[in-house]
Write a structure and sequence with these properties.
- Strands 1-2 form a two-stranded antiparallel sheet. Strands 3-4 form a two-stranded antiparallel ribbon.
- The chain is globular, with a radius of gyration of 19 Å.
- Helices cover 61% and strands 2% of the residues.
- It is mainly α.
- The protein has a domain of 113 residues.
- Helix 8 packs parallel to helix 10 and helix 10 runs antiparallel to helix 11.
Length: 327
């Protein structure tokens, strides 16, 4: 039997296009609401002349290490800084020169291109591309973005293979912040490539993350308990998801999660680490160092909440954190 082709009214197609554009614009508008003096303390790594950032400087090791360059690109797009946006884009080009025929980034001598590394990269890359597309610099990057999207789609489809979804589900089962990175990697790639299956995969990972959410107090359970650093990461990523996939119940969960985080920010901007399951108490290591609380991500989480809801407490707490860092 011949497959049936579904035809949608042009008015519906236009509506969907405008809806996606509105979400992009909302993301940019939120970032612009954040005080510039605070936003610059929320991470970002200027790539080197070869387009490499963080641990990739000196030789490409993993797409995951390029994430900081996408933070750098986002901040530059918000400012309308053409020079810095171009520097950030250099990291995009450099990373995709490492993409293999299958869509991932594993190569001889650079083995760390597995599903988790690709998910982390896509989650941040997609967000950067979506923000840049709606910024005042978007028109001059339109052609490059159009050429990039098929490469993003290829990486996301590689990641969406059942064996890799199962692997992410297994490896990230006790880390809801990572499940939300996975969700954004699928979902935002789906937005860029207009791929319903990727969006659906993203929602499935959101649901998995919510399975590790304690509604009574708003805690995302990292390895079975609260963690004042990863709580902010999860709440931040969920807030980004909501911009593109609005959901009232998820919004309530995000707001409750932020309220829990706010209670961990002291009057002097110090983050309470008592009872943390993963950071601040030498529980885990990353690249040979004990994991500490990530002040940049906590600050950005609070700034998102302020921009979304107008909550003055979130803005005040973010400012206290930054002021403490400046001392």
């Amino acid at each position: 039997m011949q497959a049936r082709t579904l035809r949608y009214p042009s008015s519906l197609i236009l509506f969907l296009v405008l809806l996606a554009a509105a979400a992009d614009a909302q993301q940019l508008a939120l970032l612009k609401k954040m005080p510039a003096d605070l936003l610059r303390f929320t991470g970002g790594a200027r790539p080197d002349a070869d387009g490499m950032a963080s641990y990739n400087q000196g030789g490409f090791k993993s797409p995951e290490f390029q994430r900081g360059a996408m933070h750098y690109l986002v901040r530059a797009a918000v400012r309308g800084d053409a020079r810095c946006v171009e520097e950030g884009w250099r990291a995009v080009d450099a990373t995709f020169r490492q993409q293999n025929e299958q869509g991932s980034f594993s190569r001889e001598g650079a083995p760390h291109g597995g599903p988790s590394a690709v998910a982390f990269w896509l989650a941040e890359l997609d967000q950067a591309v979506l923000v840049l597309r709606e910024s005042k610099l978007g028109p001059q990057y339109r052609e490059r973005i159009e050429q990039l999207v098929p490469k993003i789609h290829k990486a996301a489809k590689w990641l969406a293979q059942p064996k890799y979804q199962r692997r992410l589900e297994r490896e990230d089962a006790q880390a809801p912040n990572r499940l939300l990175f996975d969700a954004l990697a699928y979902g935002l790639s789906g937005v860029l490539a207009d791929d319903a299956e990727l969006k659906q995969a993203g929602r499935r990972f959101v649901d998995l993350a919510i399975g590790q959410y304690r509604g009574s107090d708003g805690v995302f359970l990292e390895k079975g308990g609260p963690d004042s650093s990863y709580q902010a990461v999860a709440a931040m990523k969920l807030q980004v998801w909501l911009l593109y996939f609005p959901d009232k119940k998820l919004a309530e969960a995000a707001d409750r999660a932020v309220r829990w985080e706010l209670a961990r920010v002291g009057p002097d901007g110090q983050i309470d680490i008592n009872g943390n399951t993963r950071t601040g108490l030498a529980q885990e290591q990353w690249m040979g160092r004990d994991k500490d609380v990530n002040l940049s991500e906590i600050t950005l989480c609070l700034l998102y909440h302020h921009a979304r809801t107008g909550d003055a407490q979130s803005l005040a707490a973010a400012r206290r954190i930054v002021e403490r860092r400046q001392k």
